[in-house]
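Structural prep section.
Before we set up the soaks we want a predicted structure of the protein with pyridoxal-5'-phosphate in place, mainly to decide which crystallisation condition to try first. Input record follows.
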Amino acid sequence: MTTKQTSRPDKHDPGTVADNTWFVHGGNRCDDTTGAIRTPIVMANSYQLPEDPTTLDDSDYGGLVYTREHGANQLGLERKLAALDHGEAAAVFGTGMAALHAAFFTILNPGDHAIVSNVTYMRVWGLFDSLLPAKLGIVVDFVNITDLDAVRAAVRPNTRLIHTEVIANPDLRVSDIAALADIAHAAGATLTVDATFTPPPLFRPLDRGADLTLHSLTKYYSGHGDAMGGAVVGASASIEAIRTGALHHVGGAISPFNAWLIMRGTITLPLRIERHSANAQAIAEFLAADPRIAHVAYPGLPGDPHHARASAQLRGGAGGVVSFAIAGLHQDRVRFVNDLRVITSAVSLGHDETLVAYENYAEARASAFDAPFRDHGLIRLAVGLEAADDLIADLDAALTTVYGPAE
Ligand SMILES: *Cc1c(COP(=O)(O)O)cnc(C)c1O
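Run finished without errors. Recording the tokens verbatim:
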């Protein structure tokens, strides 16, 4: 019997059922061969060709040939991610950086100009600060993306790309996506939006005019600190260009197993992001009221400079990351981080467990940050799914050990 997955349709089309129902059912199919109610993991690197290989149609399960280009689990995940982000199509990759690189590599040609938020995930900053200029001759301006006049002023005749993050890693400034889309489109440029910190249903950049939504699936989508992946979502023609250019020829493909794990993560994403956001809100409020803390950034706090922009765009919370600064000695901050018992010192975010990363930005890009983060470093808390009271008690106990009780 052939194991090719062919005809059985998804149980529900997005749009015919409520969001939460589709998060559960979307993309899952009963297996034609065994009847299993979960889509199996197809660990094959190639697929049986049709009798006449020249009739291959790359657009459906019947068109699977080679797993770098398309495997059954990738294809299912791509369809679900596209629907969740209100896009026509998606391409998935082995990591978030592979997905971001594929988008930039496809959009930009030698000599093109890019406007990039001066606060982004550090590897994105590195890509635009050194690799893309050195290897492709891309000209880059890093601008404060929340200053729309500065963004407009940076536009040049050869501007082809504006890139930002909805909530920026790590200082949590918030971009106005619709306004940036207007600026990009007036300039004939593409707006790419990294929505890793704000996956659906929190926010969907395509609904606000972004051309491509980018995700590190490693974070909230996977959600359990295990699989890595990345995705680009947008119009079919743009995604096909990215797939046939960067995915087929550069090859940052995801493994079927990781695609399956991330597919499983999509099911509980709305529940988890709600809890991440509620926990982060409670912790941000605790930190903001604590005299031992010099500065807190969290767009869910009414006093945060980005609060209005966040509430105008996000639905149901401000995400799970809280960044803060503690004045005083570097060594004390190191002790504080190591004294935490429930919270683990590690990079990454969007996991079930709370992670903390203390970074001291000596690099050039630190100049983009607000004074407290420049002066005292930045402690990024990737809030997990534990009980908020336990997390707050853990923070309070470590603060008390190092700095004494709150007055
Ligand atoms: C982690 C992250 C990335 C990179 O994703 P990987 O899966 O680690 O390659 C890109 N953008 C943001 C905002 C991130 O937090």
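Observations: Residues 232 and 260 are 17 Å apart (CA to CA).
Flagged for discussion at group meeting.
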